Amino acid sequence: MDRLVTVFGGGGFLGRYVAQQLYNARERVRFAERDPRRAYYLRTLGGVGRTQFVAVDIRHPERVAAAVAGSDAVINLVGVLKGDFDGVHVEGARTIAAACRAAGVGSLVHVSAIGADPESPFAYGRSKGEGEQAVRAAFPRATIMRPSFLFGVDDNFINRFARMIRLSPFFLPVIRPSVRMQPVWVADAAKATAAAALDPKAHAGTTYELGGARVLSMRELMAWICRTTGRHPPLVPIPDPIGKTLARLTGWLPGAPIIWDQWLMLQQDNVVAPKAKGLKAFGVAPTPLDVVAQDWLTFYRRHGRFAVKSL
């Protein structure tokens, strides 16, 4: 009850599940957000006196230092898919790690991503890789978590594809159909992340890659969502030259189906490396997509939960 865990970006998708794990462990939680109102909905998860909110932009060292002060553990969940990659993923991560070292914080968990590599050809992967290096340099005992794509009832991954399928009654274009991924349930990733923060003796200085129970190609994932939502548009693979041109010429438009950096990301598989440590180190068995996703995907069926499911 006496420990305080500061969570940067706790109001986001992964953050709400991490917060639940921390509250289950009876910890106090401080949510550090550029706009704390994004996390106000989390107040009901914790008991009286167990929740704090601070306004902080992680690119401002003095604000980060104030947010970290008095913390026993810090978790950095902040990330962007477009915009200031270097400012958030590199400089922001470095600032948090340096503040943790100066404040004598007991543990730091930095959430990165599978594919993080300083030599990556795409801005997201490169900045994530450089961010990991910056964190290690400032706080060598930091725990680094590299999840694959996260799925959950309110994700922007499975739901995004399901919406696209619902709007594509005649055929479904599939970009990079052979690229492989290993989606991981957000609650599983949250259990591992919270455990790493609360048990630094076991996990400090280690990098983990978090993947789900099954590796799927893009085509297999699309086909599964189609079957689960009871929709059967023909899957039409988009040749790479066309997909590349689409990303290059239209990626800057609001609501574009794919942006240039996403196209570059899809040039490589997003799966756990063969010898990487993962969920097993935390005693977490990966939850299959089929087990949990069918419950909320009924929303995308033509008649919702009253629809007759096809075999």
Please supply descriptive tags for the structure shown above:
7-stranded parallel sheet; Rossmann fold; alpha/beta; two-stranded parallel sheet; 311 residues
CATH topology of the largest domain: Rossmann fold
Which CATH-level-2 architecture of the largest domain?
A: 3-Layer(aba) Sandwich
pLDDT < 50 runs, ≥5 residues: none
Distance between the termini: 49 Å
Question: Nearest-angstrom radius of gyration?
Answer: 20 Å
Task: Report the β-strand fraction as a percent range.
Answer: 15-25%
Assign the CATH superfamily of the largest domain. NAD(P)-binding Rossmann-like Domain
Spatial order of strands in the largest sheet:
3-2-1-4-5-6-11
What is the CATH level 1 assignment of the largest domain? Answer: Alpha Beta
Average of pLDDT: 93
Number of helices: 11
- Choose one word for the global shape: globular
Q: Structural class per helix/strand content?
A: alpha/beta
The overall number of domains is 2
- H and E string: EHEEHEHEHEEHEEEHHEEHEHHH
Task: Tell me the helix content.
Answer: 25-40%
What is the number of E strands? Answer: 13
Largest sheet: 7 strands, parallel
